[in-house]
């Protein structure tokens, strides 16, 4: 009964709600990347999109006093950065990995530059009106599920609804079919008169919108300020989550929860005198991801046309 | 096969990005260098100062303190000040050499990991004066300074233990560096000074700037009973606000980050050291010693409580102030301990 007592204790509830908070920015970014990769477009620019959105969300929220407007600004910024990536990699035949990494580096310098212009002077960090958790009465007291799902900010619901919508779009809509065709056999899709490149362009924009939500989560929910380079590699972890989740919405949900669980666990394990050096504890979420990938990743098949540039009439 | 190549490239990108974030994390073992004296130097008339920083000048932390102190010293002595920020260890030597060959008279390497680079460059430019945060040795034209903020951490530990009625306090930081370890151990010693039964929790988040994870580390400590947290990394104060705990800021007055939660901050003012060094370079009296400015020199102080001193029991506050005076007079020496912890 010890375990049950722990689950309903303040520590247990804190553990499960932290799991979700740590998972959500990765979940949002990875769900968006499903659209891009299933259509054959690689989005290596997630990190830059998240970072840019974290900044714009923080600035707009601080300026207007409205976190919702901040969130919208984050989404718009994510889409704008994604459009840049799409122009170079879908319309022009640039290498998506090179452009993606270039965008990430541009975002590090660009956000620092813009942040310093708007924060007026060195030393004034913009604190944002954050989006608080809103516990749902009754549901929040369900063990495990309560703290995991019903004691969170509304962005968590947006992320979960995003998972369901993505599943429906991919599985049951004609656009989802077109998306998958563009990723598997673009020439066949093209021969039916469907536009491969328009599909990929839109898929990248959708990916940008989700990465934007993930970035806004970092500066509005997970903390209430913008700090230079605050994404700390989460965009790259989201790419690993995408692969671990087999580019499926439910898989990505599980994979990001696994990472969040590992992270929430190690933060608590550090406080018990386990004798394990903290460096090893810090590795737990990453090792968990790699081991799971090694065990369950064998059957993973990339979309056949992933990362290729499509030009009508050329092979 | 093409996507296999992409995957590899993406991993390379990931490694590069991690390299970025942890660039300033390697630390040279601390230890004060010998107070060897150097020959008298020629006075410098038109002094120019350059400072090389390992992180952004907007961090409300280590790098901002260094940058602002260099600016203040420049203003005080009438010197031109240049700076380079976000300089990784690999780039430190090149950046220092650039400043030296541009003719800067006083070059400050503001990191605990630029020591070797400073020594190499200093050997090539004997006319310039170099000040390193830490170095394994000093040279004719290389002096060092340190950050004895562990003296302030002792006072912070006393305050935290005095306020925490349930007997648990916390400490959240980035990674283990000698400086932060000295801070942690002094914080623990200070807490035990007030309450020998105190439990001091500590967390490392693994990188210098990751506010979301620092916030989660703070919340985990609060859920384990911590009532007061020492915020050694950005984001801790967010967690204290969320969990309804108090926090003690570090290096700059961080009350604005949480007016109802930030009890006080341990301030580090480098301006006195930099100003004294700049003046000494100007008049030719500079020597290559280790400049350690702590509580006694007024470089380490407690910030304004912004009204939250009402949360501190009067007897605790009196003991803290008494201890602060004893540290300043040299009557009490804060233990300096950089043993690694799990």
Automatic annotation (TrEMBL), chain A:
Pfam families for this protein: BPD_transp_2
InterPro entries: ABC_transp_permease
Any Gene Ontology CC annotation: plasma membrane
GO molecular function: transmembrane transporter activity
CDD domains cross-referenced by the UniProt entry: TM_PBP1_transp_TpRbsC_like
Subcellular location: Cell membrane
Top-level taxon of origin: Bacteria
Keywords: Cell membrane, Membrane, Transmembrane, Transmembrane helix
Membrane topology field: Multi-pass membrane protein
Transmembrane segments annotated in the record for this chain: 12-35, 41-62, 69-91, 97-118, 154-170, 201-223, 235-258, 278-296
Name of protein: Nucleoside ABC transporter membrane protein
Phylogenetic lineage: Bacteria, Bacillati, Actinomycetota, Actinomycetes, Micrococcales
Automatic annotation (TrEMBL), chain B:
GO cellular component, one term: plasma membrane
Annotated PROSITE patterns: PROKAR_LIPOPROTEIN
Record keywords: Cell membrane, Lipoprotein, Membrane, Signal
Pfam families to which the protein is assigned, alphabetical: Bmp
InterPro entries registered for this protein in UniProt: BMP_lipoprotein, Peripla_BP_I, PnrA-like
Location relative to the cell: Cell membrane
CDD domains: PBP1_BmpA_Med_PnrA-like
Family recorded in the similarity comment: Belongs to the BMP lipoprotein family.
Protein's UniProt name: Nucleoside-binding protein
Species, as recorded: Glaciihabitans tibetensis
């Amino acid at each position: 009964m010890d375990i049950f007592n722990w689950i309903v204790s303040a520590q247990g509830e804190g553990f499960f709600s932290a799991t979700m908070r740590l998972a959500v920015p990765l979940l949002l970014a990875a769900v968006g990347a499903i659209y891009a990769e299933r259509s054959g477009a690689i989005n290596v620019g997630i990190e830059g999109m998240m970072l840019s959105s974290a900044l714009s969300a923080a600035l707009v929220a601080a300026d207007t006093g409205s976190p919702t407007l901040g969130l919208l600004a984050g989404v718009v910024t994510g889409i704008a950065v994604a459009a840049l990536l799409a122009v170079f990699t879908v319309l022009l035949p640039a290498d998506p990995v090179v452009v993606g990494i270039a965008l990430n580096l541009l975002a590090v310098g660009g956000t620092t530059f813009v942040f310093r212009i708007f924060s007026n002077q060195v030393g004034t960090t913009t604190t944002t009106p954050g989006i608080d958790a809103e516990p749902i009465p009754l549901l929040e007291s369900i063990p495990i599920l309560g703290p995991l799902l019903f004691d969170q900010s509304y962005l968590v619901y947006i992320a979960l609804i995003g998972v369901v919508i993505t599943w429906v779009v991919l599985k049951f809509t004609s656009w989802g079919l077109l998306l998958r065709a563009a990723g598997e056999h673009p020439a066949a899709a093209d021969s039916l008169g469907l536009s491969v490149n328009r599909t990929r362009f839109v898929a990248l924009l959708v990916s940008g919108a989700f990465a934007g939500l993930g970035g806004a989560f970092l500066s509005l929910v997970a903390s209430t300020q913008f700090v230079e380079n605050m994404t700390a590699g989460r965009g790259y972890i989201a790419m690993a989550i995408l692969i671990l989740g087999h580019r499926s919405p439910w898989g990505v949900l599980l994979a990001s929860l696994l990472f969040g669980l590992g992270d929430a666990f190690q933060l608590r394990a550090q406080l018990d005198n386990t004798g394990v050096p903290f460096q090893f504890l810090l590795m737990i979420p990453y090792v968990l991801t790699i081991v799971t990938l090694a065990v369950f990743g064998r059957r993973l098949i990339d979309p056949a046309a992933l990362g290729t540039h499509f030009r009508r009439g050329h092979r | 096969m093409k996507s296999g190549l992409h995957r590899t490239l993406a991993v390379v990108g990931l490694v590069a990005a991690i390299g970025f974030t942890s660039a300033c994390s390697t630390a040279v073992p601390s230890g004060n260098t010998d107070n060897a004296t150097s020959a008298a130097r020629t006075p410098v008339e038109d002094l120019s100062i350059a400072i090389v920083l390992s992180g952004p000048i907007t961090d409300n932390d280590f790098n901002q303190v260094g940058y602002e102190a260099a600016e203040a010293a420049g203003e005080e002595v009438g010197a031109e000040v240049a700076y380079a920020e976000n300089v990784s260890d690999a780039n430190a030597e090149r950046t220092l050499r650039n400043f030296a060959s541009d003719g800067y008279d006083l070059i400050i390497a503001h990191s605990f990991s630029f020591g070797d680079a400073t020594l190499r460059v200093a050997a090539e430019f004997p006319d310039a004066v170099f000040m390193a945060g830490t170095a394994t040795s000093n040279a004719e034209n290389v002096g060092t300074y340190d950050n004895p903020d562990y003296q302030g951490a002792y006072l912070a530990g006393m305050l935290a233990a005095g306020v925490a009625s349930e007997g648990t306090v916390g400490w959240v930081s980035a990674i283990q560096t000698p400086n932060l370890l000295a801070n942690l151990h002094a914080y623990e010693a200070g807490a035990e000074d007030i309450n020998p039964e105190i439990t001091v929790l500590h967390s490392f988040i693994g990188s210098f700037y990751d506010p979301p994870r620092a916030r989660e580390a703070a919340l985990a400590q609060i859920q384990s009973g911590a009532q007061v947290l020492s915020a050694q990394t950005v984001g801790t104060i967010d967690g204290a606000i969320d969990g309804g705990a108090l926090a003690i800021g570090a290096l700059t007055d961080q009350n604005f980050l949480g007016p109802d939660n930030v009890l006080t901050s341990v301030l580090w003012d480098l301006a006195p050291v930099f100003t004294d060094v700049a003046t000494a370079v100007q008049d030719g009296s500079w020597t290559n010693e280790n400049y350690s400015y702590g509580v006694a020199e007024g470089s380490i102080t407690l910030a304004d409580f912004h009204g939250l001193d009402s949360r501190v029991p009067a007897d605790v506050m009196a003991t803290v102030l008494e201890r602060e005076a004893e540290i300043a007079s040299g009557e009490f020496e804060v233990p300096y301990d950089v043993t690694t912890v799990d």
